[in-house]
Amino acid sequence: MKPLISRNDAVTLPQAALARGAHAPSRVLPGALAGQGVSDELRGQTPHPVCRAQRDSARAPNPAREGACAPRAGSASRSTASLRLSRSLLALALLATARAAVAAPVDDALGRAAQFLISQQDPKGAIWEQKAHLRNQTAMTALSVLALTAMGHQPGDPTPAGEAVRKGLAFVLLPENQDKDGYFGKDGSRMYGHGITTLMVSEMLGMGADAKQDEQIRTSCRKGIELILRAQKVQKAEGARGGWRYTPDSGDSDMSVTVWQTMALRAARNAGMDVPKEAIDDAVRYIKRCYDPGDTGKRAGPNGGGGFGYQNRGREISTTAEGLLALQVCGQYDSEEVVGASDRLLKDGVKAGERWFFYASYYYAQGMYQRGGKYALEGKKTIPASLVPLQARDGSWDGINGEERQGGKIYATCMAVLSLAVKNHYLPIYQR
User: Fold this and answer.
1) From the CB of residue 207, how many other CB atoms can be counted at a distance below 10 Å?
2) Pick from 245, 333, 246: which is nearest to 286 by CA?
3) Do the beta carbons of residue 192 and residue 139 sit within 8 Å?
4) pTM listed for this prediction
5) pLDDT in tens, 67-103
């Protein structure tokens, strides 16, 4: 089993987030081509005419230099430099225009997705599909908070999106949503939801709306991390050691649940929480045991690279993308497994309609971005091309096949947002 679960109305990225040093999407500012230092040609104006004598003198080896038309010393070199500058500015302008053309549909899609998530919030702060009566309110709210913050919205922002984040975070932190042992999965989401929610509170450390909420976040995060660490130590067979599965006392492990717990541990450790290095190392060893290098046993097998399986060695697209991201988040940037998995994904990609499409897209987008170079470029090109056309008019996404459709629109929309928002780099866990 894998996971749980009009343009004018779009919510835009808050300027407050950009002012804090976040990376803004590339845009062409109005009038940018009419600024100082830009040539008349670029502004579309007619350049001053050049007199015949000066033009002819530039062609002749020994020109007659007299009258007002005689060029001054060094004018030819200055003219050449000016021409080069104009060409450079034109190239930059065209590049900015091209980037803006690519970014505009993605930004529009993200804005409409944010509006949809906000519309699904109930008076208590939970973000869930009330009409569909789906469960997993804590997990879906936590996933929605991750999605909204990935777009740049924070609890302290005086905007509808900022308020939604603040209320969603407050809902997750209610005592009834985390039991005395620190478990978030009591809403029916099990260890999937526990990993998702613990990852969210780990990312929100120090970002609460006030000092009281910051302390609540820290306490909740600590309890969630301690449960993950205890669950990892449950006695298991050799092949399952270091991983996690559906419940805290599970005696086996799988890749999907393990990666959510690993991401939560890594995020908490990055934020200064007490997470033993040995716990992350054990998780890495389990993930690597699920790696299949391909038929030849080399880094790049004859089928275009290696991959990861669900509980054993395998090369499924979704679990391969999971392993690629998790290992890099744990610092394994150039390991054999990362090289092989990224080669496999570069060759085969993630295609709409395949099993666990939204789940795989999320891990693929983030994992290929971490890999950088041609891998990041491929992800940047293919993910928007496959996701944006699938967005519904209300701003949501929905599962394509029966298995993933059961997760609901909140789940699919959050996965799509986290896939498309990779360009923003707002959340620490997803930064290189």
Assistant:
1) 15
2) 245
3) yes
4) 0.77
5) 444 445 555 666 777 777 776 666 555 554 545 555 7
